[in-house]
Write a structure and sequence with these properties.
The structure holds two protein chains of two kinds.
Chain A (H helix, E strand, L loop, with lengths): L5 E12 L2 E13 L4 E5 L6 H8 L8 E9 L2 E2 L5 H10 L1 E4 L13 H12 L5 H14 L5 H4 L9 H12 L6 E5 L7 H18 L2 E6 L2 H7 L2 E6 L2 E7 H6 L4 H8 L49 E2 L8 E2 L5 H7 L1 E2 L2 E2 L7
Parallel strand pairs in A: 3-8, 3-9, 6-7, 7-8
Antiparallel strand pairs in A: 1-2, 1-4, 4-5, 9-10, 10-12, 11-12, 13-14
Helix pairs in contact in A: 3-4, 4-6
Chain B lengths: L7 E14 L5 E16 L4 E5 L6 H8 L7 E6 L2 E2 L5 H8 L2 E4 L13 H11 L5 H14 L16 H13 L5 E5 L7 H18 L2 E6 L2 H7 L2 E6 L2 E7 H6 L4 H9 L5 H13 L1
Parallel strand pairs in B: 3-8, 3-9, 6-7, 7-8
Antiparallel strand pairs in B: 1-2, 1-4, 4-5, 9-10
The chains are: A alpha/beta, B alpha/beta.
């Protein structure tokens, strides 16, 4: 455990809203090693973005209540001062958000914004050096003719170029951890493929550890080493990439995998669906938060299952489902493929 | 009208937007060729998938085809009748035959209107129903799209994204159209909800013999719903054919590039593909 770069333990984030108190994140724990890509998968309201934002202190407010522990190289971030956090952001943890249209200030040149980020943290850097670094960074993320484009305004960049520039800026101070929240969701698939290849190269070459937040299991399969599946503020399953895709234990994971439209498989008559909608955090059911949508629900589901390793051969593979491993392996098969399945007769 | 005649036929459709400059008199200095001569057709009960990346012109093509914006040139036939260039007044009775479902279920429903009004207004405007009959028709529609008749008096904000998209579909169905153009109808929805909406559209198609133009950037979903697929790139259709042919035996270089960029949700296959690409 000592080699973990980032260690999150029992993270809980609650908000007071007009409609009542919500527990947006309810007990999330994971470790991130250098060079590792951890994917957090979930739908709206699953708590995946709040988890990431809390790590870098973006959810601190009078209306939020944050518990647990987030340690970066052993240093607790949840209790760190705002000053310390400002240093951590950028220098140790870089961030890339979903929308490349709003992440840059439209009235400043791309290069100036990268230079500002560098000089804010490293005031001793000369403008000229920072300018050169900005060009190198843009070049390293594949912006063609970086020397000239460094003086462009954000609107002169396409969406994909802007997202690459965002990644360049987040890497300016050579952080060890990158948090990427839906970094390719707003992009076209051909551009997405380029951004994913870029992230993969950075992981390999620089040992950059990445938390990738996404709803797209295709993206996960392409880049992740380990996966957390979140639902209703809780982790319902976590494991290695192959464990999650080839031996998924939680019915919600089955449903997600089953409803994918895969170009490399024969077309199905009907798309397997998960009925109902993700739960409102204001009104979570007792026990398992997925049980109202789960065809395999039984009386024990009213009690919340712990996130436990239930397979002797895979001690790191944990899930929150009361079904036995044998029942799971049987019920998740729908015509030979993994899917949510039907209620047992 | 012969049986083989397509319901909706678009020929050489062009929509250019002029780029104007000038102080007193606008002078056209350039034009954006958003839709640059495309042809496609849709038969009764058939689904044509229109795929392409952002800026490829797919949404503009749909709007111009439906005469929501005036096409620069080209012809559009609905049930054999030319509709390109028809006046708004002449289009009105035809509007009921062709409806649209939009991408963003948060922006496409008026937040101040109740669900009953949102779905019922087209019926009222076209003089189809009023009073208790109107209410009954709307409630039937709500049930048909998987909502409950009690939702009649609620406001859009009381619904989730998936439910709102169902409301948008109910509105489109109200006038019993023959053609529905759905522009990215599931891309704003959660993964677990996308399949529900896709399946709902498939059920409605079968029940009502609807023709669909299904516009999306997600080629996986498009393949699932479409009988035929047209691939758009820079205002043109670069390839068009049966869904299986386009997805499994693409001919055009851009289609191949598009297909190759779609992530494979299978770690082993993804690794294998990366290796082949890496060694190539």
């Amino acid at each position: 455990m000592s080699e973990a770069l980032l260690s999150v333990r029992d993270l809980r984030v609650g908000f007071v809203t007009e409609a009542g108190r919500v527990q947006a994140v309810d007990g999330v724990s994971f470790d991130l090693a250098p060079g590792e890509v951890l994917a957090i998968v979930g739908e709206s309201g699953s708590g995946k973005s709040v988890t990431a934002q809390t790590i870098i202190g973006l959810t601190r407010s009078a209306n939020s209540r944050i518990e647990g522990s987030v340690r970066l190289r052993g240093n607790e971030l949840l209790e760190a001062s705002e000053e310390t956090l400002q240093q951590v952001r950028g220098e140790q943890i870089g961030m890339v958000f979903q929308d490349p249209m709003t992440s840059f200030n439209p009235v400043y040149r791309i290069g100036s914004q990268i230079i500002e980020a560098i000089r804010a943290h490293r005031p001793e850097t000369s403008k000229r050096d920072a300018h050169r670094t900005a060009i190198e960074l843009l070049d390293s993320v594949g912006i063609p003719d970086a020397e000239r484009r460094v003086d462009d305004y954000p609107h002169e960049f396409s969406g994909g170029m802007r997202q690459r520039a965002m990644i360049a800026m987040s890497l300016a101070l050579e952080p060890e951890v990158l948090i990427a929240d839906e970094p390719t969701t707003a992009l076209d698939v051909t551009v997405q493929a380029q951004i994913l290849a870029l992230l993969e190269r950075l992981n390999r070459e620089r040992g950059l550890a990445t938390i990738l937040i996404t709803h797209d299991l295709g993206v996960v399969a392409e880049v992740a080493d380990r996966v957390l599946v979140m639902y209703g503020g809780r982790v319902v399953e976590q494991g290695t990439l192959d464990e999650i895709f080839y031996d998924p234990q939680h019915p919600y994971t089955w449903g997600l995998l089953g409803s994918l439209t895969r170009l490399d498989r024969p077309r199905l008559e009907r798309l397997p669906q998960i009925s109902g909608a993700p739960p409102s955090l204001l009104d979570l059911p007792t026990g398992c938060s997925f049980r109202l949508r789960c065809p395999h629900e039984f009386n024990r589901c009213a009690e919340l299952p712990g996130l436990d390793a239930r397979l002797a051969e895979a001690p790191g593979h944990c899930d929150r489902c009361w079904l036995s491993p044998e029942q799971k392996r049987e019920r998740r098969l729908v015509e030979g493929e993994i899917g949510l399945g039907e209620p047992a007769r | 009208m012969s049986a083989a005649e397509p319901l909706f036929e678009v020929t050489d459709l062009v929509k250019h937007f002029p780029v104007k400059r000038g102080l007193l008199f606008d002078r056209e200095v350039d034009r954006v060729r958003a839709v640059d001569g495309i042809s496609f057709s849709v038969g009764r009960g058939e689904t044509l998938g229109l795929v392409g990346e952002s800026g490829s012109g797919k949404s503009t093509a749909c709007r111009a085809a439906l005469q929501l914006i005036e096409p620069t040139s080209g012809s559009v036939h609905f049930e054999g009748r030319e509709i390109a260039g028809l006046s708004q007044r002449a289009m009105r009775p035809l509007r009921r035959e062709m409806q649209m479902v939009f991408q963003d279920p948060y922006a496409s429903l008026n937040p101040r209107k109740r669900v009953g009004q949102i779905i019922g207004d087209p019926l009222k405007l076209q003089g189809e129903a009023s009073g208790t009959e109107l209410r009954q028709r709307v409630q039937e529609l709500l049930e048909r799209v998987g909502l409950s008749p009690e939702h009649y008096d609620r406001f859009p904000h009381e619904f989730s994204g998936g439910q709102r998209q169902r409301i948008g579909i109910a509105r489109a169905l109200a006038l019993r159209p023959k053609l529905i153009v759905a522009d990215e109808p599931v891309s704003a929805l959660d993964v677990s909800i996308q399949a529900q909406i896709v399946n709902l559209l498939a059920d409605l198609q079968e029940e009502l013999d609807l023709a669909f133009v299904f516009v999306a950037h997600d080629i996986g979903i498009v393949r699932h719903v479409s009988d035929r697929i047209a691939v758009m790139h820079q205002g043109k259709i670069v390839e068009q054919g049966p869904a299986a042919d386009v997805c499994e035996r693409p001919k055009d270089a851009y289609t191949k590039q598009l297909l190759a960029a779609v992530p494979i949700a299978d770690p082993r296959e993804a690794r294998a593909r990366r290796q082949t690409i890496g060694s190539a």
